[in-house]
Design goal:
By secondary structure, the protein is an alpha/beta fold. Helix content is 45%, strand content 14%.
Length: 356
């Protein structure tokens, strides 16, 4: 559905489909700026999921990147591919927080002015992270945005008045390919250890993270199950798969502030539609439990958007995880305010939910 007050700002899908070869072009560029995020084996999750001996669970932890999330991959490659066009012009983008920090980091590396349009509800840690790399921030009222279209209007005004280039946080071929480098790293790691992949859990919002990883992992492990994970209150992709075309949610709602896009990007949709084998819509209560579980068993504090894949895996029954290969989960980021994180842990403790 299209809201006339908030028109789509996404570019038209590319006529040429992206492939793993496009992702491979991005890898040497990213390696100039930061080291790969680690792929860590989780013995605790292997036990919690009751896997057969010989199967392993791996977590790709993008919290180790310089900005604490995966978003700098796509942002860096976007900045690289547009560097000659930019000249002295600034770059503008809208972001819930992590792409803002990623693009700020890219601007710092390529010495470009960056302006981010962020919601007034963005976590403080994401605002501070963005500012720390020298970017500028303009805020909009998130609660009213579905009616006013303030986010897109403000981004458009900066584009027009300051002659800024627009970078899209997820619906852009360069962003998708940059994100996909993480999938190449996962495939290389598993192959080096003689492993195969049976199940892959990844969050879907705008779809840039999952689409990029699919280009890499579906090429390396075509028989794997690729599971898209969304908040129950923002499951536009699940609805889109059922309908066979992109659906839009006007007021997505969840504690997963990084997973509240109104719909999946046009460039991402055909990639996701082709390879995603199933979806899981996770209630916020389960995401809070996963945050507490991961902190208790691994000592890692992660944001809701990062923990949601752990929640999906913990809620999966044995039948849904049948297979002989390994399971990989994407932890997309760790940027969460301390007080909010502690409140999530307290809510889980008060609910009396048993630990897995």
């Amino acid at each position: 559905m299209h809201n006339p007050h908030q028109p789509h700002s996404e570019p038209a899908p590319s006529p040429l489909p992206l492939t793993v070869h496009d992702v491979q072009q991005a890898r040497p560029i990213l390696r100039q700026h930061f080291s790969p995020a680690p792929l860590i084996r989780s013995y605790r999750l292997e036990r919690a999921l009751g896997l057969a001996p010989g199967r392993r669970v791996w977590i790709k932890d993008y919290g180790w990147t310089p900005v604490g999330s995966f978003k700098l991959m796509g942002a860096l490659y976007w900045m690289h591919t547009h560097r000659d066009q930019l000249g002295a012009a600034p770059v503008v983008a809208h972001s819930s927080g992590n792409f803002a920090a990623g693009l700020a980091f890219a601007g710092h590396r390529y010495q470009r002015r960056v302006i981010l349009v962020m919601p007034d509800t963005a976590p403080r840690i994401k605002v501070a992270n963005t500012l720390s790399w020298g970017a500028e921030i303009r805020t909009f009222n998130l609660a009213n945005d579905p009616v006013t279209g303030e986010r897109d209007r403000l981004t458009r005004e900066i584009h027009e008045q300051e002659h800024a280039f627009r970078a899209h946080p997820y619906d852009d071929p360069a962003v998708i390919c940059g994100n996909g480098v993480g999938g190449l790293e996962i495939a290389d790691h598993l192959r080096a250890e003689g492993r195969t992949l049976s199940h892959f859990f990844c969050a879907i919002s705008g779809g840039g993270l999952m689409a990029g990883h699919l280009l890499s992992l579906a090429d390396a492990f075509p028989a794997a199950h690729f599971i898209g994970v969304e908040p129950a209150g923002a499951n536009d992709f699940q609805q889109s798969l059922a309908a066979g075309s992109r659906c839009r949610i006007e007021r997505p709602a969840s504690i997963c502030d990084g997973l509240l896009s109104y719909d999946v990007g046009g460039h991402n949709w055909p990639i996701l539609q082709r390879w995603v084998t199933s979806t899981v819509a996770v209630p916020d209560s389960a995401t809070k439990e996963a945050m507490a579980w991961f902190y208790e068993h691994h000592g890692v504090r992660c944001e809701p958007s990062g923990a949601i894949t752990i929640a999906a895996a913990l809620r999966s029954g044995p039948a849904s995880l049948e297979g002989d290969g390994d399971i990989v989960l994407i932890l997309s980021g760790r940027n969460v305010d301390e007080d909010f994180f502690r409140q999530c842990l307290a809510d889980t403790a008060a609910s009396g939910e048993p630990s897995h």
